[in-house]
Amino acid sequence: MKNRVTMAQLSLLLMLVMMGGKFLSLPALLAAELGHDSWLAVAMTFLWDGVCLAFLMAAVRKNSLPIDKVLYGTLTPVGGRAVLAVFLVLFLCRIIVLLDSCYKTFAVTFDVNTSWILFVLPVMAVAAFAVHRGFNSVARTAQLLFAPIVLSIIAILLYPATQTQFRALAPVAEVGWKNIAEQAFLKSFWFSDFVFIYFVMDGIGKGRSAPVFISFSVGAAITVLMNAVFVALFGSLAQHVDIAMSKIGLFAVSVSGVGRWDWLTFTVWLTSVILKIVVFTFCAYTCVEKICGKTFSKVNPFVMAGITAATLLPMFLSVTQLLDTFVRWCLVPFAVVQYVLPLFMPLLVRAANKKYPQPKEQYGKS
After folding, report:
1. pLDDT tens, 256-269?
2. Of 90, 176, 213, 243, which is least packed with CB atoms within 10 Å of its CB?
3. Which has the closest alpha carbon to 4: 210, 286, 200, 197?
4. Which residues in 104-141 are b (16+ Cβ under 10 Å) and which e?
5. 0.85 exceeded by the pTM?
6. Which of these CATH numbers, 2.160.10.10, 1.20.1740.10, 2.40.160.10, 1.25.40.10, describes 7-355?
7. Between the CA of residue 196 and those of 14, 201, 277, 283, 288, what are the distances in Å?
């Protein structure tokens, strides 16, 4: 089965996906609303992410069915397809936002300008190849890239973190906990990176899930630290700094005086963003398969063409408009699949296993 993954692979991939998109445009968006308290909204959202992940992993340990059987067997085929449709729209929106952030990153950091089509098509070609090879190939790629990516993040963050005056974050919760909680919900679209687990849950090895929670905790801590360093360094200007990781890297270079070493580390880190796009493309493709009730033996060109066509939307509509209108309008249905569905997954899996009894396979411990 080409979509089987071990717990160790899952844990490494989760950590990379978590840090693959939150170091770009999100810090500036939060800083515009919360100022130096933006890191608290990130921490608050991660706390709820952790709760949802715990429920989802509890379901995974008892599960032997693909997500469509779990949903169709408990929520009816109509309800199950509605949930998968929400997932599909969520993944497409996240892919578009990630591609837009990558596009801006290359323009800002490397002073490279190209057309949107010429930027998107190679990325989607890589994603199509990954879909063809199966999720296991994506997980093995994450294993291979894990050490270089994490080391690059440490290299970018370490020196600025030691030079940051964290007293600039005081007073804590100056804007009020109500405003922080509200922004945490309004920006929840950017979080719940664990949702890709739904689409490989029947192929996850039955080993201990402790590595998953360790990776999640480390990834969350690094992301919160990055946000705290960012707003402490740039203060009131943080809301105007579009690509946070790029500017933090430039700060490290400007004060260290050893040349533009940040290009290398930043390029290595960007592979985690591409990896995240690939993971979400796999999930979007799987959503279409499940909704249509078909499993394609090879990559279906029409499905991939449809997903790629959706990524061309920024040619006609700015991503800012997408976030301010469509995503905000979809925030509640997105939140249902991101933060409500995981809480009920253990019950849904238990009911589905009774409806579709079958021997559980042990894929190997990790």
Report:
1. 555 556 677 888 88
2. 176
3. 200
4. bbbeebeeeeeeeeebbeebbeebbebbeebbbbbbbb
5. yes
6. 1.20.1740.10
7. 9, 9, 11, 6, 14
